[in-house]
Amino acid sequence: MRIDVLLGEAPVAPADVADRVVVVIDVLRAATTVATALANGARAVIPFETIEETVMRAKAYARGEVQLAGERRMVRPESFDLGNSPLEYTAEAVSGRTILYSTTNGTAALTSAQGARSCFFAAFVNAAATVAAVREALNDGADVTVVCAGHERHLALEDVVCAGRLVRGIAEGRHDVVRGDGARVAEAVERPFVGGIASVAFEAAHARSLAANGFEADVQACLSLDRFDVAVRYHDRQLQLAGVTASR
Fold this sequence. Notes:
alpha/beta; putative 2-phosphosulfolactate phosphatase; 7-stranded mixed beta sheet; 11 helices; 10 strands; 18% strand; ComB-like; sulfopyruvate decarboxylase activity; EC 3.1.3.71; hydrolase
């Protein structure tokens, strides 16, 4: 079994994900926000690359069924119901609703995973649950690609640290693992943070930028390890809790 990590600085090619178990990571903030929404009772999160596509898809639903959500340049687009802060996605706001969702980095990374055998969306808040889900998905034999969403086509430290944690967990106890160069880099980058991830807030450029723009509480929420015992699966163009059958 081979594990490759794409570090977020180049487009994802179809061959990178074809027939593989894929994990897309976007710690700040999309994957954290999606895990929060689903843990708090959202029916599904449907990702879109553009704001226009999100608004158009909303017309297929009754208004009370959906919430339009996401960000551009860190802030909520005009006419959207929710931004990209995980703190907004309370049970009161999302329970029983479908979230139509578009962000700068995370949703584009997800759409690049078409052709994967199975695909998960992960952050620190559900890292352990994601590792367990991936290991279960590997029972029938497959290779793994971990895709770091990055930040505007640049490497994002927080995603690489999370990728290293996932590689370490997926490989634990297995003697058949071949690590690609990206996986080795991710494990090396993660090593100083094994004892705790809080210092990522001070070392990651994107975390510092969010904090400087008033989202320090979001950064802290995103750096909470294993807060949710849920794995998020991307299937049939929807994000749902792993094991839940897609609807609509």
